[in-house]
Design brief:
Blueprint (H helix, E strand, L loop, with lengths): L4 H13 L2 E7 L5 E7 L1 E2 L5 E6 L3 H8 L2 E6 L6 E12 L4 H10 L9 H5 L4 E15 L11 E3 L2
Antiparallel strand pairs: 1-2, 1-5, 3-4, 4-7, 5-6, 6-7, 7-8
């Protein structure tokens, strides 16, 4: 079902309330790799992730820029699923880093695994999904539906 603007707004609010997403990539021989990562999303549903240089996901993306993203791990029965092409930027602008830190409540940046593991610096992964769906099976929600809403 194609989502109305009201449903898109509710899906966006749901995404903004989440702090982590799974991003999945594949190697050149098709081996899957998925990672739970902190993220920031802007108003047009573009996702920003920070990855350490030399990570498997960055190596995968250099050869195969297709990704899948999942947001929502419970406890409510809701999930956003999407996919598209990733772009790697070999830097993390300060403002993006601050938005990422600000997206995680009570974040102590000194304890983030990415900071401890980043011996070779960071890169930004930018994903503007070509498709995105929202499944909301929460019967207490006013947007409950036993089907996916097409967001993008």
């Amino acid at each position: 079902m194609v989502a109305t603007q009201d449903i898109k707004d509710k899906a966006f609010k749901f995404i903004k309330e989440q702090h982590f997403a799974v991003i999945a990539t594949a190697s050149t021989i098709g081996e899957p790799q998925a990672a739970t990562m902190g993220f920031f999303v802007d108003n047009d549903f573009t996702f920003y992730f920070i990855s350490i240089n030399g990570s498997r996901k960055l190596d995968n993306l250099k050869n195969n820029d297709n990704v899948a993203i999942v947001v929502g791990f419970g406890p409510q029965p809701m999930t956003i699923q999407g996919g598209g092409k990733a772009k790697i930027v070999n830097d993390v602008p300060d403002d993006l880093f601050q938005k990422m830190v600000g997206a995680v409540p009570n974040a102590d940046i000194t304890k983030w695994p990415i900071v401890k593991l980043a011996k070779n610096g960071f890169s930004t992964i930018i994903v503007r999904p070509s498709w995105m769906e929202w499944l909301n099976l929460n019967p207490d929600s006013d947007s409950y539906q036993e089907d996916f809403y097409k967001i993008i």
